[in-house]
Amino acid sequence: MPVQQQRSAQRTSGDVGTVFGAPGRGRAGAGNAAMVARIAALASGSDDRSVAQVGASGGQDLDAAAFAAEITEDGGKALSATQQAQGRVAAPAPETPGTALGPGATERTRAVYAANVARERDATLHTTLTPDQAQDLGLFVQNWEANRARYESVSAKTGVPAALVAALHWRESTGDFGTYLHQGDPLGKPAVNIPNDIPVFHAWEDAAVHALTMPDKASKRDQLGIDAGTRDGARLGTFAEVYNGLGYHYKDMASPYVWSGTSAYGKGKYVSDGRFSANTKDRQNGVRVMLDSIGGVDPGLQRTAPQGASGWASILEGRTLAPGARGPLVQELQRRLVAAGQRVTVDGDFGPGTKAAVIVVQKAAGLDADGVVGAGTARVIDGRARPGQPAGGAR
């Protein structure tokens, strides 16, 4: 897969379709010029809505050899068989993160999914778009509006949600319908970048169906319990991460392919095949932000880091706050711990002292003593559930 460069925001090459002035087909159906302005406002802080709100307004694991080939440039692409697998729609997936995966889910799939569930539940998760990312996101929304029917036709044949197909397409080639969805190489020629052991296709839809129903991709779709209607962010993010490769997972970091443009990702990127740069930052939008912009995922992303009591409410509603976090929400946790009789410094840093105080509370209440603050722990801290009584959560 070629190194993804920051592409011009005005790109119209390939069969990208009529974008400006296209009739609205998606949730973003307002005027496209206004859409760009509104989404660009997300980066400047002049619009305090979530990206979703803005958009709404306008089988088997790889064998050893293939697994080794996964860890390549930009997270890696797994080698695959040349024949096309038959796509089939999996049973509807439960929409609550953390519920059971599909039948036959491997330990590797479960591990990647669990990591993405934790990121989805992080109470501090929010968008961190640069001005360039905000502008690019506006163009992605326009592309979705103009070409939604094409993405839906692929979704109907593969069981992969149309919004996710669109986001993968934008990551691979900025919505260029003259390229393979597999890796962004030009259609009508033998593929050069991984995966390159694929037939030559001349129509984008045919190539896209093949890319999404290759044996390893179809297997992961079914393991994750994904169908065309799935909106669970952790499941969709995990599929996208597997689609790109698991190099980032094995570095114990959020994949920028999924999380770029959010607080879950800081820096670090594969800049060429097998070459990782810890100080390089992915400048594209991740799949998660793109899904949010067209209403293709639940829950929506927060625009800014949650503040104080308002952020605390999100923990009571099911998000979590883990050691290592910083900011106003951690200060709110520390103030509440002090009020509950714990000795902690209110400095906004969820360090060892704060973790130890949380564990004391958890042990006294009979909760999992892991230092992670969820709804159950939050209720105990607030005095809403006495120690020894049900706290309404495992942590």
Keywords:
single chain, 395 residues, mainly alpha, Muramoyl-pentapeptide Carboxypeptidase, domain 1, 2 domains, two-stranded antiparallel ribbon, 15 helices, 2 strands, 42% helix
Report on this model:
By secondary structure, the protein is mainly α. The protein folds into two domains: 32-293, no CATH class; 308-382, PGBD-like superfamily/PGBD (Muramoyl-pentapeptide Carboxypeptidase, domain 1). The chain is built from 15 helices and two strands. A two-stranded antiparallel ribbon has the order 1-2. Strand 1 (269-272) and strand 2 (275-277) form a beta hairpin. The chain is elongated. The two termini are 42 Å apart. Mean pLDDT is 76; it is low at 1-98 and 385-392.
Number of domains: 2
Instruction: Report the major sheet.
Output: 2 strands, antiparallel
Integer-rounded radius of gyration: 22 Å
User: What is the straight-line distance between the termini?
Assistant: 42 Å
- The main sheet orders its strands as 1-2
The tally of strands reads: 2
Q: Note poorly predicted spans.
A: 1-98, 385-392
| Assembly state | single chain
Mean pLDDT: 76
> What proportion of the residues form beta strands (DSSP E)?
under 5%
What count of helical segments does DSSP give?
15
Order of helices and strands: HHHHHHHHHHEEHHHHH
Gross geometry: elongated
Could you estimate the helical fraction of the residues in percent?
Answer: 40-55%
The structural class is: mainly alpha
